[in-house]
Amino acid sequence: MDAVEAVASPNIALAKYWGKRDVELNLPVTGSLSVTLEGLETRARVALRHRPEDRVCFAGTPAPPVEARRISRFLQLFRELRGEPVGLDVDLASNFPVAAGLASSASTFAALGIAAAEVLGLSLSDRELSILARRGSGSAARSVFGGWVEWHAGAAADGTDSFAEPIAPSDWWDLSILVAVTDPAPKAVGSTDGMRRSEASPYFAAWRDSHAADLEELRAALQARDLPRLGATMEHNCLKMHALALSVQPPLLYWRPATVAVMQRVLTLRGEGREAWFTIDAGPQVKVLCPSSQAEAVAAALAEVSGVKTILRSRPGAGPRRSEARA
Ligand code: PMV
């Protein structure tokens, strides 16, 4: 096949990956658990080139050199498996704000890995794709799947046991995920840097050591479809991650005033009887989980919070799609 197109969605972590035991291989200190976001998508189109170097574009425009190099380094892993120095033509496009705490790297490296493997004629299992996607961006290991996904930290030094797998399908639970966008600009501190700095937090050992209990609680809440239990653990895990970031020098503060205002509104919504819980990744946007039957009311309340630019509506989404594209 000369050209392949793959589409993958980002995911949000309920128990977060925050800390690496190996930076080169993107091996996490802890496991993590996420849900795939429907409707938010990155499309990767990959074609074989008749020259050795890659060409990388973002929606038709040549990518900045730093990003093009990161993508070429990732593609190198696939070329090595094929054993041939073939160049690739890559075009990537996302339908949501990139690099703003909406996990665009997760959907990008998942879609790119799937399309590259196929165009290079590698027949890889989903587990192998998850391990490779992880090398592009840790959270991409989870975006190789749809629905509810767990990424195992693993213990092996070579990362062969650090892969994600689905734990419940996208239609397991009729929930909605609302994304309150407070600042769509690219974030100032990327996740690799944020993690490296957070590992110096005086609270890092407590984060690492309390994580397994959060994962177990989330798995049990998911199996029981117990939203208060799931939501409470998700919020707790998110605030612990941000407590690490806040407790380093210089501090790492991902929030805007509107980020805090949305969190506070979620708390008052619960006081008003709504079932809504928040989580925040390494950026200023707030993701809110609620039953789909309450999504309209919760979205309307969040849209009124001062500083909220827009509300994206999503739900647990399916896994990646791939198709043959015109070369
Ligand atoms: O995959 P990365 O390197 O972009 O890191 C993701 C970090 C968080 O989004 C904050 C947490 C997570 O598990 O997705």
Overall description:
Helices cover 36% and strands 23% of the residues. It has 327 residues and is of the alpha+beta class. β7 (55-58) and β8 form a beta hairpin. The longest helix is centred in the middle third of the chain and has 21 residues, at 204-224. The protein is globular, with a radius of gyration of 19 Å. It starts with a strand and ends with a strand.
Topology of helices and strands:
Layout: E1 3-8, E2 11-15, E3 20-22, E4 27-28, E5 32-36, E6 42-48, E7 55-58, E8 61-62, H1 65-82, E9 88-94, H2 104-119, H3 126-136, E10 148-151, E11 164-168, E12 175-181, H4 191-198, H5 204-224, H6 227-246, H7 257-271, E13 277-279, E14 286-291, H8 295-303, E15 310-314, E16 321-324
Helix pairs in contact: 1-2, 1-3, 2-3, 5-6
The structure holds (3R)-3-hydroxy-3-methyl-5-(phosphonooxy)pentanoic acid.
(3R)-3-hydroxy-3-methyl-5-(phosphonooxy)pentanoic acid (PMV) binds at residues 13, 16-18, 32, 103, 105-106, 137-139, 191-192, 281-282.
